[in-house]
Amino acid sequence: MALERPQSIKPSSQLTLLCAVLLLLSVAASIGLGAGAVGPLEAWSALGGGGDAQARLVVLTLRLPRTLIAVLVGLALAGGGAMLQAAARNPLAEPGLLGVSAGSATAVVIAIALGLGHLHIIVAIGGALLGCALVLGAARLSGRGDDPVRLVLAGAALASILAASSATILLFDQRTADEVRFWTIGGIAGRSLAQVMPALPAVGLGLIGAAVVARPLAALALGEQVARGLGQHPQLIRASVVGCVALLVGAATAMAGPVGFVGLVVPLAARWLAGPDIRRALPVALALGPSFVLLADTLARLVASPAETPLGVVTALIGAPVLVLVVRRQRLPSL
Amino acid sequence: MSDTRAQPSVLRARPPASPPRQPRGYWRLHWRGLSVLIERRGMLALLALALLGAAVAALSLGQGSVRIPPGRVIAALLGAADAPTTLVVRQLRLGRVFAGAAAGAALGMAGCLLQTVARNRLATPTTLGIDNAATAFAVASVVGVSTSLAPAAFALTGALSMLALVFALSGPGDTRGYRFLLTGMGLGAICGAATNIMLARAPIDAANQAYPWTVGTLNNRAGPTLALLGWSLLVLTPLALVLGAALNVARLPEPVARSLGVRITQLRVGAIALAGLLTGLAVAVIGPVGIIGLAAPELARRLAGPRSVPVLAAGLAGASLTMLADLAGRTLCAPSELPVGIVAALVGGPYVLWVLLRTPQGALNA
Fold it and tell me: I need a labelling partner for B138 at 20 to 30 A (CA). Which of A117, A179, A209, B8 fits?
C-alpha cells in the first residue's frame, strides 16, 4: 500500500527533535559533571581549549573518552536488544537476561586466565555468539521460542551456569580474579580510548548489519509464511541477526563488562514512542541508547561521589523495576 | 493439574484386579476400627530416598583427607572405633554433613511447597530472587556494619521479606505462575546490584569475609544457626506434611478446590510463609544454593508419582543432593575445594535448561 511506503517509516519530526535534545543534554551532563572540582562551565571552556591545565586534563583525558565509550556501549546494547527482541518476537529478550552478556564475560575470563587477555574483543564476540546461539537455538529446536518467559528462564539458567564456571576459574586463579573483579560488574570508568579502539570495527559492522537486516526482519514479524512469500529466508535472517547481536553485545561487553537491562529498557521506550515496527523502532532505540548509558554513567559518578558506583549496578537499579512493571501489566506486551 | 491416571476409570470394561475396598496402588492398614490408606509408590520412593540419604551420608563421612571405610564410619558413630577415627568422624565431619543434610532438606521441602503454590515447576528460591536477597542482606551485615551483626539473622530477614515482596507485587490470579518468576527475577537483580555495590566499595578484607555468602558453602556454618535450623526442622516438617496433604486438593483448578471446601487463600499464605521460613533458615546456614529447591522436588515427583505432593520425599532428596554436591566439591579437585553452591549451579543449571526445553507447553504445572 502506498501508505506503508518508506516515507511513513521515517520518525516524526517531534520524535527526532526529542531524541536529539536528549542526546545533547546527556552528552553535556557527561562532560560537565563529575566527581572532580571541574564544573560544567569550566569543562566547556576546557573543551574549547581554554581553562587551566587541571581542567583540560580532567575533561580531555577522563571525561571525553568516557563519554565516547558510553555512546558506543549505548549504541551497541540498544541495537542488540532491539534486534534480538524483534527476532525472538519476545519483549523480554534482552542480551543480559538471555545470557548473551554472561557468555561473553565468561569467555573473557577464560581468555584472561589463559593469558590471552589481548584478544579479549574477539573472545568476547565469540562468547556472545555462543551464548546467543545456544539459547535461541535450543529454544527453537524444541519449539519453545515463542514462550517469552521460558526463553528468559532458559537464559537465566545459562547465565547461572556460566557465572558458576567463571567463579570456579576465579577461585583457582587469584591473579585473574584481581584483574576482573571490577570488570565483571560492568563499568566504563578508567578505560582509555586506545583500549576500546579494537571494539570500534565490531560495533560499526554490527550496526551496518542491523541496518541491512532491519527490513527483512520487519517482514519476518508478519509471520514465517508471509516472510517466505515476500521472498525472504527466515533462517538466513535469524542467523544474521544472531551474528549482528553477537558483534554488538560482544563489543559492548569487552568495552564495559556485562551491563544489563540497557537492551530491555531502551527498545521498550523506543517501541512505545515509535511503534512495534523494527524499521521505526531501531533508529529510535539507537538514538536513545547512548543517552540512557550516558545518563546512567553520569549518575554512577555522582551518586556516591567521590567513589564510583559501577555502571552495571545503576542500569540494573533502573532496569529491574521496569522489568517488574512490564510483567505486572495484565498481559505481557507482545511484539 | 491432577493426573488422569489418579482418577478412577468409569469406562473400564473388565472388573479391577484387586477388591474394590482397596484401591489400586494403595496399601490398606487396619487397626481396630481405624484404617489408613498408604500410597504404595510414594512409600517406596520415601524408603529409597531415605536409603540413598543414609548411603551418601556414610560415604560423605568417610571421604576427605583421611579415608575411612563405611564400616568404621558406622562404628565411630556408635562410639566403637579408635579415638582418632572417632574424632575425625564425630568432631570434624559430622557437623558439616548434618548441616548439608538439614539445609538441603529444608530447601527441598520449601521448593516443593513453593512450586505447588505457584503452580509452576520452576518456582524456586533462586528464580524467585530469594537467594539474592538473602545474600544482599548477609553481605550488608558483613560489610556495612563494623561490629558484625549475625549475618545469618540478616539472611533470614532478607529471604522472608523478599518472598513477601514477590508475592505481594506479582498480584493474584496468574494460573501459570509466570508473573511470580519474572517479578522475582527483577527484584533479585536489584538485590544482586546492591550486593555488587557493597562488594565493590568494601575494603578487600571485608569483601573476602563476605565471599562465602555470595557462593554458598558449608564452610562457614555457625553452631547456633545450625542448631536453630535443626530444631526448626523438627517443628516445621510435620507442619509441611500437613500443608502438603492439604495442597494436594488445591492442585485442582481453583473453583473445583474451593467447592471441595479448601480455604485456598489461607492455605497459600500458610504454605508461602512456611516455605519462606524454611528457605531463610537454610540460606542462613548454607548460603545461596536455592537450585536444590528446584531439583529435589523434581526428583521426588519423578519417583513418587503424581498422586500426592511429595513434601517429605522432596526433603529427603534435597538432603541427599546437597550432601552429594558437597562431597563432589570436596573430593573432585582435592586438596582445594569447590563451594557447594558452585557445584550445584554447574549441575543444576543444565538441568533447568533441560526441564525448560523438553517440557511441552503448559505442562510446567507442579
Answer: A179
All structural domains of chain B: 95-358 (1.10.3470.10)
ipTM over cut 0.95:
no
What's A197's domain CATH number?
1.10.3470.10
On whether any CB of chain B is under 8 Å from the CB of A261, the answer is yes
Min CA distance, B261 vs chain A (Å)? 29
**Cα gap A207→A209, rounded to integer Å:** 5
Distance CA A161, CA A240 (A): 26
DSSP B25-48: TEEEEEETTEEEEEEHHHHHHHHH
Phi/psi of residue B249, nearest 5 degrees: -75, -35
| Cβ contacts of A323 on chain B, cutoff 8 Å | 182, 185-186, 189
Residue A54 resides in a domain = no
Is A187 a domain residue? Answer: yes
- How far apart, in whole angstroms, are the C-alpha atoms of residue B60 and residue A151? 37
Q: Is 0.90 topped by the overall pTM?
A: no
- At which residue does the C-alpha cell 574483543 appear? A121
Domain span at residue A124 reads 65-328
- Nearest C-alpha of chain B: how many angstroms from A211? 31
Write the pLDDT tens digit of every residue in A211-250: 999 888 888 888 778 888 888 888 888 888 888 998 999 8
Q: How many residues does chain B have?
A: 366
